[in-house]
Design brief:
The protein is α+β, with helices and mostly antiparallel strands and about 170 residues long. It has one domain (about 15-160). The protein has helices spanning about 15-40, 170, and strands at about 50-55, 60-70, 75-80, 85-90, 95-105, 110, 120, 130-135, 150-160. A five-stranded antiparallel sheet has the order 2-1-9-8-6, with helices on one face. The termini are far apart.
C-alpha cells in the first residue's frame, strides 16, 4: 500500500500539523520578501532574470537569490553542504516554462517526481514548489515508484525589464 500524498499523518497531533503549516508559511513569506528585494536590486544590471530560492533538504534550509541569470544559460543553485546542485534555465523571457536539473552528490539522491533528474516548471507563477526525492533514478521507459520525499525546492522568478529601443519619432530633433 502506498503512502498518502498528503503532508500530514493519520493520527498526528493538531499541534504538530499547525507547526508544519507555520513553517511552510514562514518560508513562503521570506522567499517572497527576498524576491521583492532581488527585483528591486537588479534593475541596473545586465541580467535577464533573477531567481529567488528556498531549499529544504534533509531538514536543513538554504535560501538565496541568483541575480545574474541570463536567457539560454544555466544558473546554479547549491546547498551549503554541497549535497545537491540544481540548474535553472529559461529559454526566452516570454516563455512560461523553466528547465530544472538536479544532481545529488550522494548515491540515491536527489531526483524530481518519478525519479527524473530534470523537469519543467511554470515560471509565470509567483511561488513554485517542487518536491525532491531520494531513491532510484528513472532508466528508459520504466516507471519509478517508492522514492522517498527528502525535501522541497521553492522558486520565484523575476524578469528584469530591458529598455526598448527608441524609434526616430521618439528621439526628436537632432
Amino acid at each position: 500500500m502506498s503512502a498518502a500524498p498528503h503532508s500530514w499523518v493519520i493520527g498526528e497531533r493538531p499541534s504538530v500539523m499547525l507547526g508544519r503549516w507555520l513553517r511552510k508559511i514562514r518560508l513562503g513569506i521570506s522567499l517572497l520578501a527576498v524576491t521583492a528585494c532581488a527585483s528591486a536590486a537588479t534593475s541596473g544590471q545586465a541580467a535577464d532574470y533573477s531567481v529567488a530560492y528556498g531549499l529544504e533538504l534533509n531538514g536543513i534550509r538554504d535560501t538565496g537569490v541568483l541575480n545574474e541569470c541570463n536567457i539560454r544559460q544555466l544558473c546554479k543553485i547549491s546547498d551549503t553542504r554541497g549535497d545537491v546542485v540544481i540548474l535553472v534555465s529559461l529559454n526566452h523571457v516570454d516563455d512560461p516554462l523553466a528547465f530544472l536539473g538536479i544532481f545529488g552528490r550522494r548515491r540515491g539522491c536527489c531526483f524530481f517526481n518519478g525519479g527524473s533528474e530534470n523537469t519543467f516548471v511554470d515560471a509565470s507563477k509567483k511561488l513554485i514548489s517542487v518536491p525532491i526525492f531520494a531513491g532510484r533514478r528513472i532508466r528508459g521507459n520504466e516507471v519509478v515508484v517508492g522514492n522517498i520525499s527528502v525535501g522541497k525546492l521553492w522558486l520565484s522568478f523575476s524578469i528584469v525589464p530591458k529598455p526598448r529601443p527608441q524609434t526616430d519619432s521618439e528621439k526628436g530633433p537632432i
